[in-house]
Amino acid sequence: MPVGLVVMKWDERVGTEILAKYPEEIIVTDKTLMQVYSTHEYSGESGMISLMVGSLNIASYYTGPEKGYYILLLLNLDDDPDSYEGGLVDVSRIILQNLEDEAYIKLIPSLFQRLSVYPTLNNEQQLAITYQDEIKRMIINRLREEGVVSKSELMVWLKDKYRQGFVDLEGVLIELIKRELIKEASVKGMPSELIFLIHDILMLRVPPVQLLKDPADRGLPTQLAEDYRMEVKKFFQNYRPSEQDNLRVIDIVINPQVYETLRLLRTAIVTKNDLEKLKKKGVEDVDEVLKMLWEGQMIQVFQDEMNNEYYALLSDFYVDLIFPKYLLNIIKSEYDRKSKAEQVLVEYLNVLEDAYMSVKSAPKSKD
To answer: CA geometry: angle at 273 spanning 279 and 257, to 5°?
Structure first.
């Protein structure tokens, strides 16, 4: 479990300079900061390093010489720094997007909490965070249109499209490979490595089917069951999936306190007293969580004749990988138009076949 987060920069006049840290009471010596700086300087490139300095286990991410920021995650001795790499990449970009007026400083506590739970996130949460990231989403959307693109072309395209600043393409691609969304490979005769889309992300709101089967069995008074079904039906009659709505829901569900509450609401219709028990699981502000879920149109509140309130899921959210069959039509179209080299398209068919066979042979989820 991480013990602290430090944002550092190198100053030619004073040397290493701490710009922000959390919690405030943590102490990192100048000697330790200098060792982190020197280790990054050895490679001179953006990316993560891990090192042991005395009793400190440190995972440090360097944004590269253009911006020159160092984000240090201080860990316990038995923590694995590599398991935090994807989280550090994401947090680094958030910090760089909020440099103006030092807006990132007030975000440091929440970013630390986000990093702390990163290795324990389940597949659903990891995919949601992946899609929330603007750079990853841009790459996924481009690959949905073309299927395959060279790494060199992707870098030039991103620099042109993403003018807000820093892009660590290598770090981004590593995360997309870990999530099994892309594959990177070389093809004979091609000057640059190629990036293939091998899975896509399906995400949309879905009705809380298990709750709707028998709301009374899940905690809702019998006289309110039909009202609940009508509210869910009314919502989904007007619902249209969109990227904007997906991002809105993702912003809510990646909050650790909200997600813990959502896990309970997926299994039961509950009272405020039931929700207060979640404080033992880290849900400290139940009212704020309920406000977020209400504004995101994810819950509905029902009241019985005794004015007791019951909180029920109005819409759940589904996120998972799918095999992108539509890419076969894209490959055919690119072959007909000769917009991609034949050897690239042949290799892509092989890559997709491998991905499809992996899906077919994987054990099916009980869910």
So the answer is: 30
H or E segment and range at residue 193: none
Asked if residues 351 and 183 have their Cβ atoms less than 8 Å apart, the reply is: yes
Per-residue pLDDT of 260-292, as tens digits, reads 999 999 999 999 999 999 999 889 899 999 999
| Torsion sign (Cα): 209, 360, 141, 138 | positive
Domain of residue 9: give its range. 4-120
Residue 209 and residue 162 in one domain: no
Which DSSP category does 188 fall into? T
Query: Whole-structure pTM over 0.85, yes or no?
Result: no
Domain annotation covers residue 56: yes
CA distance 76 to 58: 9
In order, the DSSP letters of 230-263 are: HHHHHHHHH----HHHHHHHHHHHTSHHHHHHHH
Q: What is the pLDDT of residues 132-174, one digit of tens each?
A: 988 899 999 999 999 999 999 999 999 888 776 667 788 889 8
Backbone angles phi, psi at 303, to 5 degrees: -130, 130
Residue 153 sits in the same domain as residue 297: no
Last residue of a domain, one of 95, 120, 145: 120
